[in-house]
Design a protein that fits this description.
Elements (H helix, E strand, L loop, with lengths): L13 E5 L4 H11 L3 E7 L13 E2 L2 E2 H7 L3 E5 L4 H12 L3 E4 L5 H4 L4 H7 L4 E6 L14 H7 L21 H24 L3 E6 H7 L2 H10 L16 E5 L4 E5 L3 H11 L13 H6 L1 H12 L4 H11 L3 E3 L3 H6 L1 H5 L3 E6 L3 E6 L23 H7 L4 H9 L3 E2 L4
Parallel strand pairs: 1-2, 1-6, 2-5, 6-7, 7-8
Antiparallel strand pairs: 3-4, 5-14, 9-10, 10-11, 12-13
Helix pairs in contact: 1-7, 6-8, 7-8
Pfam family, one: CoA_transf_3
Keywords: Transferase
Organism: Methylorubrum salsuginis
């Protein structure tokens, strides 16, 4: 599919995205999939740095960029020039939301900080994403997912177990979570604006996003004064709740309550373990978690994964395969839920991308199209905000606005 008419609960909302790499673009992506029109404003000299996150590339276009920016329209601007700032102001005159994830002080140095824009656009929702937030002793620090994972406690609880090197979560979870939290914050601010007409700043960070992912571990630490450590695939509060090796791979077992524990023993043919005092209740199983895993492991190695998954489903025990990313993308549930969808890109052609993870019964959202080429929609966007053909040619000729065609 090419670009589709906007649909979803946010249809009619206009978002200007001054964001790059990941956290800010995730916020724009979520809002766009729910129907908002997202205009991505990129720097004129090369655009979003993710355009250079290669390999892989498809027909010369960064796969990473195309994933994070599908469904958006694009214009490239020289925001260091007064004419470029004037273009941005025209965009903001019709916009509901501005997203930015520049380093602290950048927008202010450009004369585009919130206090300045608020005077011109009092209803504007100004969404700021950063490494550590707009206040506090670390507000000036640059933010990266790896640093945020380390400082938020995530790396201290991720990995094979005690004594092993610290390990980050594979995906950039603080970037992605910050973008989702920002979208949630924008929607809350929009609800406030519908009641009062007032705009405001929405401010979140990678650091805070990482902290929110430690709810269970923080509960343990606050209650005991002891910082939890890494546990591999196991759960800090329930057992058995982890991955087990089978005859030909790995599966996950979620026997996280007494009913499922007893069901699991029946499927395994290990009913004798029900009478073992070490495993009588969840409290006992947590204290003796290593012994529990050792007692269960030989049973799972007797048969291949598919056999166990079939038996566990019949037995009512939550379980699943450990899929690689390609297998996940091919999974019939992922396809049925439209989590992998096709778009037609101006250069890359027909390609697949990830879909919207939130479904609406009355106002369904969707991926509305591919990612833009750098400045692909510059002319159309300028015309929409009142520039005539001669003015558009002049802005492009003087390098204030950039454009790219397929």
């Amino acid at each position: 599919m090419g670009e589709l008419p906007r649909s979803g609960p946010l249809a009619g909302l206009r978002v200007v995205e001054l964001a790059h790499i990941m956290a800010g673009p995730v916020c724009g992506l979520m809002l766009g999939d729910m129907g908002a029109e997202v205009i991505k404003v990129e720097k004129i000299d090369g655009g979003d740095d993710t355009r250079r996150s290669v390999p892989p590339a498809i027909e010369g276009e960064s796969a990473a960029y195309m994933m994070m920016n599908r469904g958006k329209r694009g214009i490239s601007l020289d925001l260091k020039s007064e004419d470029g700032k004037a273009v941005l102001r025209r965009l903001l005159a019709d916009a509901d939301v501005l997203i930015e994830n520049y380093r602290a002080g950048t927008m202010e140095r450009l004369g585009l900080g919130y206090e300045v824009l608020k005077a011109e656009f009092p209803a504007l929702i100004y969404c700021s994403l950063s490494g550590f937030g707009r206040s506090g002793p670390y507000a000036e620090r640059a933010g990266f997912d790896l640093v945020a994972q380390g400082m938020s406690g995530l790396m201290s609880v991720t990995g094979e177990g005690p004594g092993r090197p610290p390990m980050k979560c594979g995906p950039p979870v603080t970037d992605i979570t910050a973008g989702i939290l920002a979208a949630m914050g924008v929607l809350a601010a929009y609800a406030h604006r519908l009641r009062t007409g007032e705009g405001q700043v929405v401010d979140t960070s990678l650091f805070e996003a990482g902290i929110t992912l430690t709810y269970w571990q923080s509960a343990i630490a606050l209650a005991t004064g002891i910082a939890p450590g890494p546990m591999g695939s196991a759960h800090p509060l329930n057992a058995p709740y982890e991955a087990f090796e089978t005859a030909d791979g790995w599966i996950t077992i979620g026997a996280a309550n007494q009913t499922n524990w007893l069901r699991l023993l029946g499927v395994l043919g290990a009913e004798d373990l029900a009478g073992d005092p070490r495993f009588a209740a969840n409290r006992d199983r947590m204290v003796n978690r290593s012994a529990l895993a050792e007692a269960l492991a030989p049973h799972f190695r007797r048969a291949p994964s598919a056999d166990w998954l079939a038996r566990l489903e019949v037995g009512g025990v939550p379980a699943g395969p450990v899929l690689d990313v390609l297998a996940m993308q091919a999974d019939p549930q992922a396809r049925a839920r439209e989590m992998v969808v096709a778009v037609d890109h101006a250069r890359a052609g027909r390609m697949e991308t990830l879909g919207l993870p939130v479904k609406f019964s009355r106002t369904p959202g969707r991926v509305h199209g591919p990612a833009p080429l750098l400045g692909e929609h510059s002319r159309a966007i300028l015309a929409e905000v009142g520039y005539d053909a001669g003015q558009i040619e002049d802005l492009i000729a003087r390098g204030i606005v950039g454009e790219t065609t397929a």
